[in-house]
Design goal:
alpha/beta; FAD/NAD(P)-binding domain; Enolase-like, domain 1; 5-stranded parallel β-sheet; 21 strands
Length: about 475
């Protein structure tokens, strides 16, 4: 249902941002006949970050890069084909997400920028030039996050400098790609573009990549990147990027030395910050943290009890499945018992889609040792797990699998899986951790064959 121009809408729920939490809330309440307004600032973002500029397009590129024949000469054609296929995929999903709400009579979708005028009113400057005032009993802010651009000369002015959003929108493969940041996003893009034949250099200011992982896991990822031809520069600080037309020159320091890289594109991948600019949260009396995130309690309520903040904008883990769980918490507040909270979250896993992917849950070995408790660690190269035929069958025997266990209780404290299908296997570990399934039980379980999950039979035998 569309709204006529220059009007005021009185609704039960207004949602700002078409992401996972917001759209699921709007659809659920809309199907119950509740009056809902969904506000999204861009027609290119129906469905949210994951579908349009995050999980879906990046994993599409990763998959298509992995499908290229090993050792074959790369050309721009393969990348352009992958880009077009990815854009078609996201366009189809975007249309389906729009139809999910526009097909509900009690839901109105507005496309435009929203800003608060008081705690219960949001003014929307629609893309068609009209303005709509939305007065709502409850308001959910789910505007996501945006890439951080450091205050480094040239980063904001050189046209070769891009965010992940910019880079995903291109259909031409850069011959040379410099990536500022050796974290999860930077390395995922590094592996992705290297597979298509780009010459990739990662510049990381810290002593190593993946600062939040154990040394052996970070080293294993670094080895895989080197096999793809990726150059990694650690302890290196970018000082400026030239503003001249044409290829960009990235200047950096390494200790007392300095260096330059000439590149066709520069990806800035140093983190994301909550997207609250222009919302006029002060007019709603909504508080934010020093880092710019909207302050929420364990039920995702702001200091204004009728206003909630969900997804990346509240400063929590930036995963679409966390956003989905946010929707469950808010829905429970609106029409449920009101007992569900963020405190219920245990053992939330994550994956970095390198090839093979790195998935982790719980504590690293270093974090577990820092607690002072007695621990046991099972670590094995995938190639050494001779009973795991699946890795050999699919031809992806690289990687490392690691599980950290409390020696006193046999409780699994964490796992890091750099292996084929790790993004699926890690869910088994997370489920075991949530329900106190012991390492011994995981070791002695019966798994399908050939699968990567059966690696636990051999891997966890090291703990005996």
């Amino acid at each position: 249902m569309s709204a006529p121009p220059h009007q005021t809408l009185d609704v039960e729920l207004a949602v700002i941002g078409y992401g996972k939490a917001g759209k699921t809330l709007a659809a659920t309440l809309g199907r119950l006949g509740r009056r809902v307004v969904m506000i999204e600032q861009s027609a290119q973002m129906y469905g949210g970050t994951c579908i349009n500029i995050g999980c879906v397009p990046t994993k599409s590129f990763v998959h298509q890069g992995e499908m290229l024949p090993a050792g074959a000469t790369r050309s721009h054609h393969e990348f352009t084909h992958a880009a077009r296929a990815t854009h078609e995929l996201t366009a189809g999903m975007r249309a389906a997400n729009l139809a999910m709400l526009t097909g509900l009579d009690s839901v109105t979708v507005l496309t435009g920028r929203a800003r608060f005028t008081d705690p219960h009113t949001v003014l929307v400057d629609n893309q068609d030039g009209h303005t709509t005032a939305v007065h709502a009993d409850h308001i959910v802010v789910g505007t996501g996050a945006v890439p951080v651009i450091p205050d480094i000369p040239g980063l904001r002015t050189n046209p070769a400098v891009m965010t992940s959003t910019d880079l995903l929108a291109t259909t031409q493969l850069p011959e040379r790609l410099a990536i500022i940041g050796g974290g999860y996003v930077g390395l995922e893009f590094a592996a992705m573009y290297a597979r298509f034949g780009a010459h990739v250099t990662v510049i990381e200011r810290g002593p190593r990549i993946l600062a939040h992982e154990d040394d052996d896991i970070a080293d294993a990822v670094g080895f895989l990147l080197s096999k793809l031809g990726v150059t990694v520069l650690t302890d290196s600080l970018v000082t400026d990027v030239s503003d001249e037309p044409g290829p960009a020159t990235v200047h950096y320091t390494h200790g007392s030395a300095s260096g330059t890289i000439t590149t066709d594109a520069v990806l800035v991948a140093v983190g994301r910050t909550p997207a609250t600019a222009g919302l006029d949260l002060d007019k709603a009396g909504v508080h934010t943290t020093a880092a710019g995130a909207i302050t929420v309690d364990a039920h995702l309520r702001t200091n204004q009890p009728h206003i909630f903040a969900v997804g990346d904008v509240n400063g929590g883990p930036q995963f679409t499945y966390i956003s989905l769980d946010d929707h469950r918490i808010v829905l429970d507040q609106l029409i449920g018992s009101g007992t569900r909270s963020t405190d219920d979250r245990v053992a939330v896993p994550y994956t970095v889609f390198t090839t093979p992917p790195l998935s982790r849950v719980g504590l690293t070995e270093a974090q577990a040792r820092a607690t002072g408790r007695p621990i046991k660690v099972a670590t094995a190269a995938v190639s050494a797990l001779t009973t795991v035929a699946r890795a050999q069958i699919v031809g992806v025997a690289e990687g490392l699998m690691k599980v950290v266990v409390d020696a006193s209780t046999d409780h699994i404290l964490g796992a890091a899986l750099l292996s084929y299908d790790s993004h699926e296997v890690i869910n088994t570990v997370a489920l075991a951790m949530r329900h106190d399934i012991s390492a011994t039980a995981l070791r002695d379980s019966i798994y399908t064959h050939p699968s990567m999950t059966e690696a636990f039979n051999q891997l966890l035998s090291q703990l005996a």
